[in-house]
Design a protein that fits this description.
Helix content: 25-40%
CATH superfamily: Aldolase class I
Number of strands: 12
CATH class: Alpha Beta
Number of domains: 1
CATH architecture: Alpha-Beta Barrel
Distance between the termini: 21 Å
Strand content: 25-35%
Strand order of the largest sheet: 1-4-5-6-7-10-11-12
Number of helices: 10
Shape: globular
Order of helices and strands: EEEHEHEHEHHEEEHEHEHEHH
């Protein structure tokens, strides 16, 4: 059995680390480079960075932050936000990231997934999915809809079908973020995570709602995820990454341990 991963998520706005709840009320909580280094030293398996307003503001990614992070940490990290072309992907990878995460750009132009996979390999292409629960309909039979531009624009796309499309186009991984659970610390949206994990064969990262080691354990067992994304519970000092890994391991999950 492959080890499950614990992945801190750093949302960045104007070069600063920020955090909100359900994509709203974001506040400045520190320097993303210093925070990334701390999580690396604590034993994070990977780190994810999102420039949370790049797509909405129709601008490029924060390459200066990517370069600074690459000089400070020595584990894989992915970068998303405002990536709309293969050239954007190349710039992020040249700056030092191992993976790029496409979200709004992929919904608007799905070909970017296959183009990126052809240019850099599927292992470098993560598709981020921001998902909101809605009424089931003929258009959204699962009751989970894709939303883009930082939760601002509903797309009339069923999340499960979009996940299948992303895999078919060459995505190497999916990061499934529940807008309803984001920042609440009430637990991941396990139904959504399980539906997508069962619909595809590529790795699925559960995102949105982690508040305890038990929530993370549920995501990688009941939810079928291969990794759990975390933010608030480590950003605000409720847990350290070694704390989380020890407790989740004690529950019976296989993790890459740091002692």
């Amino acid at each position: 059995m492959l080890s499950k991963r614990i992945i801190p998520c750093l949302d960045v706005r104007n070069g600063r680390l920020t955090k909100g709840v359900k994509f709203e009320g974001n506040v400045d909580i520190g320097d993303p480079v210093e925070t990334a280094r701390r999580y690396y030293e604590q034993g994070a398996d990977e780190i994810v960075f999102y420039d949370i307003t790049a797509s909405h503001e129709d601008r490029g990614i924060f390459l200066d932050v990517v370069e600074r992070v690459a000089s400070e940490i020595f584990i894989p990290f992915s970068v998303g936000g405002g990536i709309n072309t293969v050239e954007d992907m190349r710039a992020v990878l040249v700056a030092g990231a191992e993976k790029v995460s496409v979200n709004s750009g992929a919904v608007k132009n799905p070909d970017i997934i296959s183009q990126g996979a052809a240019a850099f390999g599927s292992q470098a292409i993560v598709v981020g999915m921001d998902v909101k629960q809605v009424e089931k309909s003929a258009t959204i039979p699962s009751g989970y809809e894709i939303v883009i531009h930082g939760g601002r624009k509903f797309m009339g796309m069923d999340a499960i079908e979009w996940a299948k499309t992303c895999e078919a186009l060459g995505a190497g991984e999916l990061c499934v973020n529940s807008i309803d659970a984001d920042g609440t610390k009430d637990g991941y949206e396990l139904t959504l995570t399980r539906l997508i994990a069962d619909a595809v064969t590529i790795p699925v990262i559960a995102s949105g709602g982690a508040g305890s080691p038990a929530h993370m354990y549920d995501a990688i067992t009941r939810g079928g995820a291969t990794a759990a994304l975390i933010a608030s519970i480590v950003h605000y000092g409720q847990y350290t990454i070694p704390d989380l890994k020890r407790q989740i391991s004690d529950m019976g999950a296989k993790l890459r341990m740091v002692w």
